[in-house]
């Protein structure tokens, strides 16, 4: 039987709850994550908090690789009817709604960097002039709530092709007006249900939900849908992420 040595107890697993949850959600281990399961998986006696943390990080990185391999670029996520749409959407960010600093859409530009041939920044009217598409999809926050939302805007694949992005590159990295960052793998960026959204329920996006431009993907958890985007980079180097850098599983597919 596994007996935790030294100061190791279940506390360390609850401290790392988000990683444990993502590992459990994928069903990658038989049964739920426990110190015993980690010991068997890794073949080493995880006998202190640092080792547990290291093992969880390694399992999470492996989890990213498994999810990347399993991701089907053509499989559509469920869509819903207009009657199911929550209006207005449910707000979330790393700060409360009264701290939202609206972005001035008249001066706003999307900066383009990295493996992109046409790096001229884009403004609001250029996005409005592009073909628009709408998806009614579920937003799932890692905190345990979700809602059906109706998003429209420019398909990300169409946009990437328009700016001459190297779509064989590995990542699309985002920065936002509030300092938030996130990054997604190229197969997710090219997925048919991934858009740069400018509207919600057919109305111009309201400030708290990422106006004038935010990402909406049907295949990722909420935190991988950056709002108030100001910079897009195509790269073979994985950009960081506000929550990703705080230990959340990077891939975080649904
Ligand atoms: N710029 C920025 N984007 C962000 C966040 C944030 O704090 N800042 N929070 C993320 C999280 S955790 C969630 S659940 C969704 C919430 O999006 P919503 O307010 O449109 O429901 O935005 C994501 N994108
Ligand atoms: Mo979230």
Question: Which helices and strands occur, and which strands form pairs?
Answer:
Elements: H1 10-15, H2 17-26, H3 35-42, H4 49-70, E1 111-114, H5 124-128, E2 133-141, E3 145-155, H6 156-162, E4 171-176, E5 181-185, H7 186-189, E6 194-200, E7 203-204, E8 214-217, E9 229-235
Parallel strand pairs: 1-9
Antiparallel strand pairs: 2-3, 3-6, 4-5, 4-9, 6-7, 6-8
Molybdenum atom binds at residues 92, 141-143, 222-223.
Domain Oxidoreductase molybdopterin-binding: 102-243
Protein name: Molybdopterin-dependent oxidoreductase
Organism: Lichenifustis flavocetrariae
CATH architecture of the largest domain: Alpha-Beta Complex
Bound ligands, each once: ligand MTE, molybdenum atom
- CATH topology name of the largest domain, in short, is Sulfite Oxidase, Chain A, domain 2
- The radius of gyration computed from the alpha-carbon positions, rounded to a whole number of angstroms, is 20 Å
Distance between the termini: 34 Å
What is the 3D shape? globular
DSSP summary: helix tally: 7
CATH superfamily of the largest domain: Oxidoreductase, molybdopterin-binding domain
Task: Describe the overall structure.
There is one protein chain. The chain is an alpha+beta fold. The chain has two domains: 11-70, no CATH class; 82-246, Sulfite Oxidase, Chain A, domain 2. It is built from seven helices and nine strands; from the N terminus they run ααααβαββαββαββββ. Strands 2, 3, 6, 7 and 8 form a five-stranded antiparallel β-sheet that branches. The chain has a four-stranded mixed β-sheet with strand order 1-9-4-5. β2 and β3 form a beta hairpin. α2 (17-26) packs parallel to α4 (49-70). The longest helix is centred in the first third of the chain and has 22 residues, at 49-70. It is globular and about 60 Å long. It starts with 9 loop residues before the first helix and ends in a 19-residue tail after the last strand. The model is unreliable at 1-6 (pLDDT under 50). Bound molecules: the ligand Nc1nc2c(c(=O)[nH]1)N[C@H]1C(S)=C(S)[C@@H](COP(=O)(O)O)O[C@H]1N2 and molybdenum atom (MO). This is Molybdopterin-dependent oxidoreductase. Residues 102-243 form the Oxidoreductase molybdopterin-binding domain. InterPro entries: OxRdtase_Mopterin-bd_dom, OxRdtase_Mopterin-bd_sf.
